[in-house]
């Protein structure tokens, strides 16, 4: 997986260099439309001028605020910049244009079978948000920018998440990491949480680098669902239940220890004042009588019977 990711990065870098070099060569070699091209443009202008009232509806085009138009004149991109928003003029015989939407687009990544680093097979699906920041590159450098980005997202997700452990794949942003580990395992769980965020960033960076030559900016990559095998789900549920029971027993034992210490301190305070014990008896009697019980227990101090015992 790691070698595949590295090779993909190298291919993307080489592709960028090749595209930039080819663009430079093309810019230097193309001096314009040529003599025959300008003749065709002049003829087209004459036709437009001769049929002006009719061809005006064919020459004037409108693009919306979130759109741009890439104009091709005799197969070449004019001015190396898109037109819009608003009105723009095209020649009906020699010009053609392609509209490009600049709004953010989202798509779902189909469930991908991924073998994690600890040899666990999981099905992961996600969502990608991207937008086109360079309309000319999205039209000239790739045949279908949206489809290419979808396919690249699937392979990138498999390659990147295949280098992560199961814990770094399951625990995601927005979830309480303490429900996956106890208080003594917070460091390990936080490390898995950081690995998950790092995995997201790596997927986004790999997609952004690969689609930069296509004029696409990947804004966000999120994992929607991680489907585990049924046997693994039962094993993880049993482990989590055992961990919760262990923590419950520890908490109960700590409570008993604190209660015993409090009772010890209370007994020392009561032993210093015998009247405090009698007040405690009366308070207990008040609590019992408030519940409307048919039987009332009145505590009798044993000190009152010592006088009778000494007479006998």
Automatic annotation (TrEMBL):
Residues in Band domain copies: 58-240
Keyword Membrane on entry: yes
Pfam families: Band_7
SMART domains (alphabetical): PHB (SM00244)
SUPFAM superfamilies: Band 7/SPFH domain
Membrane in keyword set: yes
InterPro entries per record: Band-7_stomatin-like, Band_7, Band_7/SPFH_dom_sf, Stomatin_HflK_fam
Listed transmembrane segments: 36-63
GO cellular component terms, semicolon-separated: cytoplasmic side of plasma membrane
Highest taxon, organism lineage: Eukaryota
Gene3D superfamilies found in the cross-reference section: 6.10.250.2090, Band 7 domain
Keywords: Membrane, Transmembrane, Transmembrane helix
Biological role stated in the UniProt entry: Plays a role in the regulation of glomerular permeability, acting probably as a linker between the plasma membrane and the cytoskeleton.
Family: Belongs to the band 7/mec-2 family.
Name this protein carries in UniProt: Podocin
Organism: Takifugu bimaculatus
Lineage summary: Eukaryota, Metazoa, Chordata, Craniata, Vertebrata
């Amino acid at each position: 997986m790691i070698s595949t990711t590295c090779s993909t990065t190298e291919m993307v870098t080489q592709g960028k260099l090749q595209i930039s070099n080819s663009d430079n060569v093309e810019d230097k070699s193309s001096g314009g439309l040529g003599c025959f091209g300008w003749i065709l443009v002049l003829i087209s202008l004459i036709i437009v001028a001769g049929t002006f009232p009719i061809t005006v509806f064919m020459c004037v085009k409108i693009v919306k605020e979130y759109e741009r138009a890439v104009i091709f004149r005799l197969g070449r991109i004019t001015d190396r910049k898109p037109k819009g928003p608003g009105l723009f003029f095209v020649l009906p015989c020699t010009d053609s244009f392609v509209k490009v939407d600049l709004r953010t687009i989202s798509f779902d990544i189909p469930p991908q079978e991924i073998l994690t680093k600890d040899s666990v097979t999981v099905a992961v699906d996600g969502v990608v948000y991207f937008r086109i920041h360079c309309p000319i590159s999205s039209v000239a450098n790739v045949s279908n920018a949206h489809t290419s980005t979808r396919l690249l997202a699937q392979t990138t997700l498999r390659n990147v998440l295949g280098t992560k452990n199961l814990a770094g794949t399951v625990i995601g942003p927005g979830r309480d990491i303490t429900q996956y580990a106890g208080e003594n395992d917070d460091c390990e769980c936080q490390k898995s949480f950081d690995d998950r965020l790092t995995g997201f960033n790596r997927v986004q960076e790999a997609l952004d680098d690969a689609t930069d030559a296509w004029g696409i900016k990947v804004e966000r990559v999120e994992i929607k669902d991680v489907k585990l095998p049924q046997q693994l789900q039962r094993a993880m549920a049993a482990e989590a239940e055992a961990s919760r029971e262990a923590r419950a027993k520890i908490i109960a034992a700590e409570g008993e220890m604190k209660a015993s210490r409090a009772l010890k301190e209370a007994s020392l305070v009561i032993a210093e004042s015998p009247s405090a014990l009698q007040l405690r008896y009366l308070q207990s009697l008040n609590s019992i009588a408030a519940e409307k019980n048919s039987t009332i227990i009145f505590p009798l101090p044993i000190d009152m019977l010592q006088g009778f015992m000494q007479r006998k």
